[in-house]
Amino acid sequence: MGGAPGGVGALLVLADGRFPAGGHAHSGGAEAAVAAGRVHDAASLEAFCRGRLHTAGLTAAGLAAAAAAGLDPLALDDAADARTPSSALRATARRLGRQLMRAARATWPSPELDALAAARPRGAHQPVVLGLTARAAGLGPPDAAYAAGYEAVSGPATAAVRLLSLDPFDATAVLARLAPELDQVVARAADAARRALDEGPGALPAASAPLLDIAAEQHATWSVRLFAS
C-alpha cells in the first residue's frame, strides 16, 4: 500500500512546477522545436503540446498510473525503456527520475521508494518514480496519470515563454484549452493500468513520437542550449 491517505492537496504538491524534481531545466522537446521553426507562436505551441500529450504524455501517464496501482516498478522501468527508443530521452528520463526520487523520499518517505532507489541507483524512469511517489503520498492511479499528463504539456508551455518571449497568459490559455484532452488521456491511462494488473505492462500505452525522438538526439549534441533536454 501507499503512504498516508492523500487527496487534492497532495496532488497539487506533486504537480506543482516548483516541486524540486528538476523539471524546470527541461523543455520537453520545445527548445528543439523552436529552433526548427515548428513552434513559433501560441497556435503552434498548442499543436506541439497536443501531439506530445497524446503520445509521450499518454505513455508516461500509463506508466505512472500502473506504478501507483502497485505493479512491479522494476518491470515498469523495463517497459519504459522499451517505450523510449531515443538514448538521449532514456538518459533524461533516468536523470529526472533520480532527481524526483530524492525529493519524493524527503517528502513522502516510503519503503517502496527506498527499494526502487536501491535497485536503480542511477535512476529509474521518471514516470515510474512519479507513480510510486503518488502511491507513497496516498494518491491513486488517476492522480498519478494527471500529474504525468500535465507535466507533459506544462513543461513545454513554460519553456516556450522563455524561448519565444511568449506572453505567459497565452501559454496558460494553451494549457486551459488542452484540459479536456488531458482528462481523456488520464481516463485511457487509468483504464490501461487496471488492465495491466491482470495482463502485465504490455497492456500499457506505447504511443510513439518519432519526431520528438529525432529532435532529442539532435538537441543532445548542441554545445550551447538553454535547457538540458
TrEMBL record:
It comes from the Bacteria. Pfam families: UreF. Its main location: cytoplasm. InterPro entries: UreF, UreF_sf. The keyword Iron does not apply. It is found in: Cytoplasm. Keywords: Chaperone, Cytoplasm, Nickel insertion. PANTHER family: UREASE ACCESSORY PROTEIN F. Required for maturation of urease via the functional incorporation of the urease nickel metallocenter. UreD, UreF and UreG form a complex that acts as a GTP-hydrolysis-dependent molecular chaperone, activating the urease apoprotein by helping to assemble the nickel containing metallocenter of UreC. The UreE protein probably delivers the nickel. Belongs to the UreF family. This is Urease accessory protein UreF. The lineage of its organism: Bacteria, Bacillati, Actinomycetota, Actinomycetes, Kitasatosporales.
